[in-house]
## 1
Amino acid sequence: MGDLTLYALAVFLTLTAPLAVGLLMGVDRKLTARMQNRVGPPLLQPFYDLFKLLGKERRLINPSQAYFALGYLLLEGTSLVVLAAQGDLLVVFFLSGAGSLFLVLGAFSARSPFSQMGAQRELLQILAYEPVFFLIIVSIGIQEHSFISRDMSQNLIVTLPLSLIALVAVLVIKLQKSPYDIAHAHTELVSGPLVEYSGPYLATVELARWAEIAVVFGILTLFWNDPEPVAALLGKMVLVFAALFTTLVIDNVTARLTRRRMVTFTLSFGIALVAANIIWNLYLGQGVGI
Amino acid sequence: MKSPWILHFDTGSCNGCDLEIWALLTPKYDVERFGMVNKANPKHADILLITGPVTKKCEERLRKLYEQTPEPKLVIACGDCASTGAPFMDCYNHNHGVNNVIPVDVFVPGCACRPEAIIDAVIIGINKWKEKAEAMETNVSHEDKIMPDDSPRSDQ
């Protein structure tokens, strides 16, 4: 592929990935409804929500709220650009992590107790999934001898199956699904860090969230590689749908757990899974040594 | 308007109408078909479903919730109490209906009101949405409006 095609592909992916995630959210709501014996909203419902929010009155609690929302969108968008341009996974990870901090700052800027508590819990969520997510990326780097996603050529699903399972746990937290929808706990905290946002600014935050989830799904697609482009694309799509379906089933069969159990689970079980996979590949199995 | 988000507020109802509103979310009525989601947050809401005759104690809270909901917004008074306060006629401690505190767009009669009637009211409300949005174009500024939350924290 020439440089120009690569740039065009990067721009195309950056623009379409959040929209694809929006569509996936529609699939998510429809499937959840079917699992609960309901009809559910139309597939495009997340987009209807987004456009309605953009048309509403522009209200803020304080001026900085708007900048935090825009900062969240900008950082998640940049992270997505780097991933779409097949760049460094570590840069993608840190940009995305900085983006989530902007969400927390936006929530801390309002004095409402719901918003404050949502921000605290969002921080705890970051504490829970970020180390696991980082180790997953490290395990990919060790396996492929590179953090540049352009160089990925193996079927990591075969060599890093435990990292993939750990990534599902990260996905459950990032998608705000039970049992770890700690910050957005809609029956107790209303909507956590988003509680003081409204109208177009809520839409901004929502769009940023789609970009954030697109980054996680993007890293998930690296687990399947094939020299044949069609087979590679199909495999990646199957992987994304399988991960989404798994989180949905987990969401519908579990109740919310406490924040402490979330942190202990991911920091013990999640890290242990990835570490076991790395150790197996490096020292015990047929994997490559450094 | 394909995504009416709902805020349900009880201003001293007997809970009869509230049960019927909650019935909307069950698989039998499933209002998420119309994109309706109970958001429980005035800042996210488009439609306020109000039950009860608005007791004097609730009056201020209801007014605040209405102010916190960004334009365009709709208010639906659910049940006889919210519409006229009739079941508590001549009582000293309430406002005889939501209309005496905040402007109401659709009234739903019934004691308690049927879930089908509430769905119908929301659909009528959605038809009014377009004129509401047009009114907003002329009446509400397109600049950011800073509304600091200066209310005291404890419920007084």
Note: The radius of gyration of chain B is 15 Å.
## 2
Amino acid sequence: MADPISDHLLENHKGGGTSVPPPAVVVRGIVKRYGALAACDGVDLTMRAGEIHGVLGQNGAGKSTLMKILIGLVMPDEGSIAINGKGARIGSPQIASDLGIGMVHQHFSLVDGLSVWENVVLGEKAHLDRSAARSRVAEIGERYGLDVDPDARVSSLTAGQRQRVEIIKCLRRDPKILIFDEPTSVLTPEESSHLFGVLRNVVKTEGRTVALVSHKLEEVLRATDDITIMRDGKVVAFMRTNETDRHALAEAMVGRTVDLRGGKARHVSDSTVVTSENTEPLPVLEVVNASVQTKAAGVQLANLSLSVMPGEIVGIAGVEGNGQRVLADVLSSLTALNSGSVKVNGSEIATGRPGAMSKSGIGVIPEDRHDSGCVLDMSVAENLVLASQETVAHRGFLDRKKITSQAQDLVQLFGISCSTVDAPMWTLSGGNQQRVVLARELSIGPSVLVAAQPTRGLDVGAIEYMGERLKQAAADGVGVLLISSEIEELIELSDRILVMYRGAIVGEMKAGEIDMHRLGMLMGGAE
Amino acid sequence: MLAFLGSFGDILANGPLYQSTFRLAAILVFAAAGEWVAERAGTINISVEAMLLGGHFATAIAYTQTSNFAFSLAVGALAGVFVSSFQAYLSHYLNADQFGIGLTLNILLLGLVAFLEPNFDLSTKLAGEVKVPLLYDIPILGPAMFGQRWPMYLVYAVVPLSWWLLMRTKWGLEVRAVGEDPQAADVTGIHVNARRRHAILYTGFIAGLGGGVYLLGQVGRFESGNIGGKGIIAIAAVIFGGWTLRGAVAGCILFGYVDALRLNLPNIVGHDFNAQLLAALPFLATIVVMLIFAKHTRQPVSLARPFLRGLK
Amino acid sequence: MSSTSSVKRDRIELIGLYVVSIVLAFVIAAILVNTSGGSWSKAVEAMMNGAFKNPGRWGETLRRAAPLLIVAAGSAVAAKAGIINIGQEGQVLVGATGAAFIMTKIQPGSPLMLILGIILGMLAGAAWAGIAALLYYWRRVPVVLSTLLLVYLSSQMTGYTMTRKSLLLEIVKGSPNRIQNSAKTAVNSRLGIMHIFGNNVPLTVPVAIIVAVGVAYMLAHSVWGFRLKMLGLNPRTAQRAGVSHVRFGTMALLTSGAAAGLAGSLMLATGESNYRVSSGFSASVGWDGLLVALVARNNPYASIPVALAFASLHTGSNFLAAAGVESVLVDVIRGLLVLALFIPPAVSELRKKRRVLDLMTERA
């Protein structure tokens, strides 16, 4: 596939003599398939040295896979890579590191049980020198404004602090190319702008190259020099940041004209409004003064109270790591409350008792479906009846015919694409796995549906589908609790948005009255 | 009642009891100091039992052939490494189940030793006693800790060695990282399974050495039943100690004390106990101690979880 | 490369690997025999005679295979729930000892006493495994460790019951007790033995097959099996769906112990070690049964041929001494064989991974 812009860049390099350095990264025709799904489908990318390059795309557009390929965590099926003008085969993270590529990961790269300085020096070739390492951490922290205590245990740090450690760790190896994968999802708005200052500094004063992977238009516009836009595993556009605007980016990213401000106020269906006026219905879900505290993690929920009415979508906004996961765990019977209570349709439910929440009518689409949403080594049909085996059993034995026919119905109803219902769950794409979870949770006829980051890692079609389904569930009278770090998603779907900070609800806004500035302040704990 | 208290006092002031406590704890310490490293890397090596036995047997053969104490101990350590290499490569290279491998190695080695033993005319003897000046004169503890046969003193080297390796070297940092969070370690560029293998090989080295020391520093004569369960108790000590070396050593001393009590109780109290019940004492005590004192300490997060970088 | 052809190739490769590694295990064993002054061909012949050819021997092999199969079926239950019980050797022994309290002490026996004895044996085995469950769910002591410790403890604790006349020690008039074992079981509390073509086949054999098939069926088709599997594969999802880790995990461990106890009591009821219990009674049935389950990858059906193979190694070994080879050779062979059987699935998995990586090297 021809890519005029980067070809042009390459030629420019050849013809331009010594003055123009070769591009830091040239990627050509990268293909990576997961089963039937191509996460990257002939991707070309050219990153110029000494600039910040934005890689923009919706969740599931293939950005993360592409970056994992650059960092040696994933092997491409096809394609070639050149780093600083030289062909490279990046077979492992070690090789990437030797080539001068460093990545600041979104998740999973700090070891909780170790201290900050230990994490920073981890994986280096030099001998362990405790005092030198500690002072170096302090020094890098000071130079870039990344303040953190070198002796602190990583498990005790906030998400923002962890990211600082990640950046220090990455910078300490003096990489020529830094990749930032969705760096702001764990940051408050203030912390985000601070980060962009650091990035600019790194590029300007030290000539490094930065890739900023994101699905947020605003930050890519603000922080980058060039932008490559991906959609459905392909590169759909390349732009210079100062020659484009939000609308052009959004159109390229989504693939059609979008109304950026439109559709945020979802109309509450008339029927529920009427009933609410007449009879003051009971909330389907009430969480009252819920507190969770553990020795290892400290206070996780602090006197949190909220309620969800039938037919209502309540959004929970907040920077990740402020207790959203624990709240979802409580509503999944995975965590018990230290004090407080959970009520469904007015009756109190024992927390932490296996299956109690599910039985009382709380369906959950968990943040990490592989963690508590499905069993990858069981079949699609089995996954569809995980929570309701009794209904498909006769005298303690499973009725396979019934399971199969029920599964086939659900597969059709929810448009799940799988070879057969007996195929193992792991053979399905992420989006289809998510549909299986959704289908199961809705098939038990819940009063409440908790959806935690339900669109994370899904492609555009799946995201839209999920939104429609949540609206549909609400229209059918289900109370929906939507936990998300995507503010746009919350605004589009919610009737009410609650802001969560340090394990408590710190603010509330109605659908029509959302003030973005105040929302940002609340998320940062400013009120 | 008074008589009971009296005999209790006898037990506490009994010198030989402390001497045998030290001796019996020493072999546990060898096994535990090695096993601790492997567990911090994320493996539970039940084959530490086989590593002890391998060292025990190989040292006996080497001594029979050469009559050289130091050389025989070295052979014992290498034999431990040899046994541990099976555990290391099968479970962290081929990704076979670590417990299945460990169990099979334990059974295999018992059989192998029993099969091979008649082919060797084993004759071994104890190494010379060395009394450490000054320290030996400390009452009760002196003779126990500093009046032993010289190979036993290696225990004083092994504990700091393990600690230093794990807590102060780059390798040790990587080993700890691998046991806590292999995904993160991998992303950081550490070869997870290689570190785990190294940790197991180290366990084999120390446990093999311990098996040899036990032979030449304490029992003097090879018998395949000598090891019977000591490796398993050492694993219990590591868990008892909450995966700290200090705690593990304390566990070894506790279990060593119980074992010594088993040997010395009839002499001290002057009353015969049922032999079977006495033999059960160390295991019974280990279980009871675990039941009462094992804390919900933070274990290495990915203990006993195999690592495979996903190609999925 | 189409996926079906690669699947086929993987399968052929896997079978090839099994053949190679089994042959290798036997070659190593043969070398051991020859270097220690024996003759491997004679050893093989002796083992064949001991396991099948000589009169009455295949009955003996079946007698040994039956408890292995029962133990293996129980191990599979625990393993499916993700719990690693490796203390079957102790659970078998404790089970037999429990059964002996009824079968040997209550004279004259009766079929009712037989059944009660078996039930007590199962309860004893389950209780022994239950200690490990208690240690795990209360104190987080790994089940692997506690079950193993309990094996060591079991032989001494049961040995103790054989030193007290008030417990199980056989009361022999006139002479002091030299050997510590129990009295014989009451004649009426014994389980029948079928005589087929000159072989004595105990009723344990059909019982074992029923147990294995039953366990396989329950695991595959019952709600109980479904929940166990869910727990083993993803404990958090299971908890959300109402499967309590503590309750189901404990139950799986108890079931596994009860199966071992059943094996032990049936051995006693069908004349193992002349209807007497001693501290060496379990004779590695627990270890062997566990290894059967491991090799058969916790599939009760696959455990049937594996149990037969392990049993014939055992019965064959009884004839080794006649060929001038130590009978413990079989322990070595068995260990090598199990290691050998671990390797093929692991290697084939690894190969698959390598092939993908190689493909990428070609393209880069």
Note: DSSP finds 13 helices and two strands in chain B.
